[in-house]
Amino acid sequence: MQRSAAETIALKALGHLATDGDGLVRFLTISGLELDDLRSRAGNPELLAGVIEFLLSDEALCEGFLAAENLDSSTLYAARRALPGAAPDG
Q1: Per-residue b/e over 58-73, b at no fewer than 16 CB within 10 Å?
Q2: Structure confidence by residue, pLDDT tens digits, 29-58
Q3: What pLDDT is attached to residue 90?
Q4: Is 41 exposed, middle or buried (0-12, 13-18, 19+ CB in 10 A)?
Q5: C-alpha count within 13 angstroms, C-beta hemisphere, residue 30
């Protein structure tokens, strides 16, 4: 997957997360970010990777996002691998 496509998916994931108040609060708590920080860094590839990782760690949020975007989990995993900080394929 191209990095730009992965970033687009991650931005959609961030938007989905923003509609889930509890999920957003948990993400902010875990990441240590304030809402203003999140807004200013929303396009940062490392942050976007963190958003995908957070979704992948929460089955309900992940399933909701995948259903809303009509994606399968392999696409989300591919997006994560295309962004910084992913473990190399092995």
Answers
A1: beebbebbbeeeebee
A2: 999 999 899 988 988 899 999 999 999 999
A3: 38
A4: middle
A5: 14
